[in-house]
Each structure stands twice: as C-alpha cells, then as structure tokens.
Design brief:
Elements lengths: L9 H13 L5 H10 L4 H14 L4 H14 L4 H10 L4 H9 L3 H18 L5 H10 L4 H7 L6
Helix pairs in contact: 1-2, 1-3, 2-3, 4-5, 4-6, 5-6, 7-9
Length: 153
C-alpha cells in the first residue's frame, strides 16, 4: 500500500528524522517540527521521534547539556542559558538538569570576569557599555556590580 505523500510511512519518517539529526544535535521538539513541515502526519511523526529516541539518535538531555556548555563557553549567564534551552522546546526538568551541571553563581561570576577582561584588553573601557553588554547576555545586576571594575576617583 503506497501513500501519495513522500515520507508518510513510519519507516520513511524515521529515515527523515535520522537524516535531520546528522547535521547537528537536535531536540525531539525540533525533529517533530521538522517532520510536520515535511508533511508527515502527526501520529506518524510522534512514532518516528519515539523510534529515533529509542535508537539514541535524539536525546533531549544530551542536547541540553551540549547547548548549555556551548553557551556557557560563549559567555552567557545561567539565566540566559535556561531561557535559550526553554525556547528550544525542552522540558523544564531537562533544562534544570542541564543548568545544574553549571555552578550557576560561581560560574556566572567567572564567565563575567573573563568577558570583562577580554573586552578591557580590546579597549572597551566605558563601564556603562560593559554593564549593558553583560545584562544582554543574561547576567543579573549583582553579578555585574560585583565583577565590573570600579572607576578610580
């Protein structure tokens, strides 16, 4: 029995899901959205994602840990990392577990300090500009105040 839609069988949908995950790490939510965009019926798409998870091709926990680590290395605060992971469609418990691998308070201060030092070496001297830039990366006011150099009087 053949369907008129390409990829509408469970096997075809699973093959699409596996192929989609080859490019980079993807969450189950992303794979499901991709299959929907490709015209896969919702029930078939959910089964394909479940099969991909069973094969270990799709793993939300691994995705969350990898993305959290990447964003931490890029200098984002734990709060910003938490928000970014949530927008990826990951469950709260998965996000919490990934962010818990980061020592939030100490790592936020250390990341902010590294970012500030790098910017100061490049000549970013205005304190207000540094503060706005850190806030845009998700650092809270306490961390910013604690890590920014104070103007000499």
């Amino acid at each position: 029995m053949s369907s008129s839609k390409p990829g509408s069988s469970g096997t075809d949908a699973l093959a699409l899901a596996v192929r989609y995950t080859r490019a980079r790490v993807r969450s189950a939510h992303e794979v499901l959205a991709y299959l929907h965009r490709r015209g896969i019926p919702p029930r078939t798409a959910r089964r394909a994602v479940a099969s991909a998870q069973a094969l270990g091709v799709v793993d939300d926990r691994a995705c969350a840990r990898l993305w959290a680590g990447q964003w931490a290395r890029q200098g984002y605060a734990a709060a910003a990392i938490r928000q970014k992971l949530s927008t990826k469609g990951l469950e709260t418990r998965v996000v919490d577990a990934a962010v818990a691998t980061l020592d939030e308070a100490e790592d936020d201060r250390a990341r902010a300090r590294l970012l500030i030092d790098a910017r100061l070496r490049r000549g970013w001297a205005p304190r207000e500009r540094l503060a706005r830039w850190l806030a845009a990366r998700g650092f809270d006011a306490e961390v910013i105040e604690h890590t920014l150099p104070h103007d000499e009087e």
